[in-house]
Design goal:
7-stranded parallel β-sheet; 9 helices; Rossmann fold; single chain; binds NADP nicotinamide-adenine-dinucleotide phosphate; 7 strands; alpha/beta; 43% helix; 13% strand
């Protein structure tokens, strides 16, 4: 590669360095220095990529996820390759109570003294069957994980976000959260709900101007969830998560010329 935009990433995170060569926006190295950011579902897929990327740009990342082992792998990678201070929070969002969320708020306050951003990334796909056949138990499981948990977490962490200088909430949505499609059941319904949640939170916080809220549709991305949704697809035909990270960094770093709070963005088509 000639003149990579972030030469320091070439030996440590070649996939990010490679994707960055095609980014539409090149944030300053260290643009997230001093920020603490919670990323849910950060053990795998887009969440793991987000956590590693944010740490590469200076953020202390709170790695929240269900399975401890993959979180430890991401934690070890961040410790080995960055100067940041990550922390692991094993948490099954399907069972997230207000008490557990409150204790997370207290430990973030104690460890980091504040919180800059929250990325609601974790979600589950659930079965792809017609609504007429959709099992109630799985409907509830998907709704709990994909929309109730982001509400509980946002509510608990709101005081920390509201007292930050320029806080940000990213709600990771989907194409089927913006236009309904047959057989996407609770997943699509939960993403429509997340879009609504995003707009409500943006409207409630706009006047105070301390929290920016966005929904992002990553579009087809090479992960386990994508393979589950499209088992016949060649994974190489969809982009890796690293391709989207310029948008995430652009929104999380803050600064001038940002989209208005409440905006819906598409990682494939956005322009800085
Ligand atoms: N990939 C795509 O093509 C695509 C397209 C549009 C939107 N998205 C959205 O992008 C986000 C990330 O998707 P992905 O493709 O990276 O998915 P993924 O590869 O399936 O990863 C999902 C992550 O969420 C975690 N998670 C799931 N249920 C959880 C729970 N109950 N509690 C805590 N963590 C839980 C998983 O943890 P475990 O490892 O423990 O399961 C995993 O780390 C999702 O919001 C998805 O809807 C993805």
């Amino acid at each position: 590669m000639t003149n990579p935009p972030y030469p320091e990433l070439v030996p440590t995170y070649p996939q990010l360095a490679d994707a960055a060569a095609r980014w539409r926006h090149h944030p300053q190295p260290g643009c997230l220095q001093g920020k603490t950011i919670v990323v849910t579902g950060s053990g795998a897929g887009i969440g793991a990529t987000t956590a590693k990327t944010l740490a590469c740009f200076g953020a202390n990342v709170v790695l929240l996820g269900r399975s401890r082992k993959p979180l430890e792998t991401v934690f070890d990678w961040i410790e080995a390759h960055t100067q940041t201070q990550p922390v692991i929070v094993p948490c099954d969002l399907e069972n997230l109570s207000e008490e557990v969320a409150a204790s997370l708020e207290a430990s973030i306050r104690e460890t980091y003294g504040g919180l800059s951003a929250l990325v609601h990334n974790a979600s589950m796909l659930g079965p792809k069957v017609p609504l007429a056949l959709y099992p109630l138990a799985e409907w509830q499981q998907v709704m709990q994980t994909n929309i109730t948990a982001p509400f509980v977490l946002t509510k608990a962490l709101f005081p920390l976000l509201d007292s930050a200088d320029d806080a940000c909430v990213l709600n990771i949505s989907s194409t089927v959260g913006r236009e309904g499609r047959a057989y996407w059941g609770a997943y699509a319904a939960s993403k429509f709900a997340l879009e609504g949640f995003s707009q409500i939170l943006a409207d409630e916080t706009e006047q105070a101007g301390r929290i920016r809220v966005y929904s992002i549709n990553p579009g087809g991305t090479r992960t386990r969830m994508r393979a589950q949704a499209y088992p016949g697809e060649n994974p190489a035909s969809v982009p890796v998560a690293e391709a989207h990270m310029d948008l995430y960094l652009y929104l999380l770093a803050g600064g001038k010329d940002l989209p208005p709070t409440g905006s819906q963005l598409d990682a494939r088509t956005w322009q800085p």
